[in-house]
Amino acid sequence: MTLAPNRHASAQWDVQAPRTPWLHRIAGAIGALLVAACVWVFWGADAWHERTSVSAAHLGASAAPSLEHGAYLARIGNCALCHTAPGGAPFAGGRAIETPFGAVLSTNITPDPTQGIGQWSANDFWRALHHGKSRDGRRLSPAFPYTSYTRVSRADADDLFAYLQTVTPSARPNSASPLAWPFNTQAALAVWRALYFWPQPASLEPDGASPVAGGGGVNAADAPGPARGKYLVHGLGHCTECHGKRNLLGGLVPGNELAGAVLPGVPWHAPSLQDPSQAGAASAADTVALLQIGAAGGRFVGGPMAEVVLHGTQHLTDADAQAIALYLQAVAWPTSPVARPAQTSNADPRAARIYEDQCADCHGKEGQGQAGAYPALAGNRAVLMAQPNNAVLSVLHGGFAPATAGNPRPYGMPPFLLQLGDADVAAVLTHVRSSWGNQGAPVSALQVQQIRRTQATP
Amino acid sequence: MAQRTLACTGCHGPQGKSGPDGYYPRLAGKPAGYLVNQLRNIQEGRRHYAPMQGLLVTLNDAYLQEIANYFSALELPYPPPVAQRADPAMLARGQALATQGDRALNIPACTQCHGTALTGVQPNTPGLLGLPRDYLNAQLGGWQTGQRRAQAPDCMAHIAKGLRDADVHAVTSWLASQTVPEASRAVAQRPALAPGASAIACGSAP
């Protein structure tokens, strides 16, 4: 088939057109776009990032970094949790971080000169945190959440670096992450970064005080307001890395950074920090208690967040915990009556019996729980969330609340994964979600099976 | 404390008396140092049992010690031993290994570290009596394959790897057929080294 030349085109165009099929022209245009995209991805984006985010050298290292403050930042940023293998030396790396593209192994950040970061400078460290590049210029995997750490101030980065240089060196060698091609390539990281990494304007002091703009930012210690909370939540605390909604390529969806998401590998659902039917915080006092103690209002944190509280947030100062609470309160949606599915009327006698036999001793015949020991199930948001993952995982795996300074002797729930089959777990959860005024959707045996299947078998 | 540790007794039986089969060992009355070492081994991946590791990741050393102390202090009667179908020669071989070892194979007597009565030595060495044969077999097998490990130097891994399969069955059959003595608790000190025997370095019982 012959395509007629565009009648508005030039004479020259008219002459050449019949000899150049449209397909070729489109292919050429696509090719040019691809070349431009590649140039942008491999050179432009990074150069632009470096320029707009103000280079490390421009800011300069702190003259007298605070080790004590650095140690505090390492704790609340939870560096050791990911950078320590189970049973391994602290900060020596080797823990597998699950991503949708495979596991990424954390690295040795002890001051060992060959295997760790002993030869790094404060500028190198700042560049890794702020710009996601290693000392040798390699692009780092965003499993190291520089997408958040780019908001960390230069002063905080320097304190953190100074502290890390004082931990016990370990010669544990780093090993390559078992990622499949192409996810293990620098090219893939370049593309990902061009699409989803937005380095933030560099600031010298916490709270967004910019030395460039000369705007004297609020001192963190003086003003534990929502601005400080935002700095911690979106920066060093890297809360959005789990609680943010991601697209298919693993990029955070703008505007949904606190919207909640199912974690890769372990299908815990990191709840929305805005939706009041999930973990949206109506009460600042509850948020403070949850972060510092791991328990609030008769309920306890579970799943991966329990480890975050144990190793990290329980060490937050009152001022910082309060600041985070105020910020989360400010971004929480107002509580509104939610349309719930009609209550199921067909009570399942088998489910009621399972509840009676396995659950009622601790959680109470009316799901009322026991103060300070076992959470109430009646009116419990974690039990009622539309996505039943966390309720299913709690039944299958049980667990202890984190043993924090504020709750040093927690009570535990046994795992039921060997006692209760998929249909039993589904039945008893459906019973719990529709009793004592609870109006949650039923849980199916298929849902339980799918969640159970993702877990390691004993 | 019983109420706080329901997550443990769900599998290990009421008061940590042991589960219904050979899989979940008794906790009650074991030396506290041994129990806390096992809690840490599982927490840190030297012993592998995913459901238990999941329970322990949110606990700290102080609470693990308290849990260990609690189960260690419980006094519960032991059930009578289950009759073993092993033939007398095998049981005799088992008894010889347990009480004298085998110099030719470089296998020390169990009693050298676990006490003359095999009820354990405080604070870190467990008793070997009152345990099902399946459980004992699984532990020695685990040490042979590296599935179960302890703090280095891992003396039991070294010993288990030196045992032939027939010897594993012999010694576990004999141990499981013994009645736990009235004085069932771990003794205060290791017995004196038998003439000609050499001491063994154990990371978990220094």
Task: Provide a descriptive summary of the structure in words.
- The complex is a heterodimer of chains A (458) and B (206).
- Chain A is mainly alpha-helical.
- Chain A has three domains: 58-208, no CATH class; 226-331, no CATH class; 350-453, Orthogonal Bundle (Cytochrome Bc1 Complex, Chain D, domain 2), CATH 1.10.760.10.
- Helices cover 40% and strands 4% of the residues of chain A.
- Chain A has a two-stranded antiparallel sheet. In chain A, strands 3-4 form a two-stranded antiparallel sheet.
- Chain B is mostly helical and 206 residues long.
- Chain B folds into two domains: 6-73, Cytochrome c-like domain (Cytochrome Bc1 Complex, Chain D, domain 2), CATH 1.10.760.10; 79-206, Cytochrome Bc1 Complex, Chain D, domain 2, CATH 1.10.760.
- Chain B has nine helices and two strands.
- The longest helix of chain B is centred in the first third of the chain and has 13 residues, at 61-73.
- The interface between A and B is medium-sized, with 28 and 27 residues.
Supply database-style keywords.
heterodimer; A: 458 residues; mainly alpha; Cytochrome Bc1 Complex, Chain D, domain 2; 8 strands; 4% strand; disordered N terminus; B: 206 residues; 2 domains; two-stranded antiparallel ribbon; 9 helices
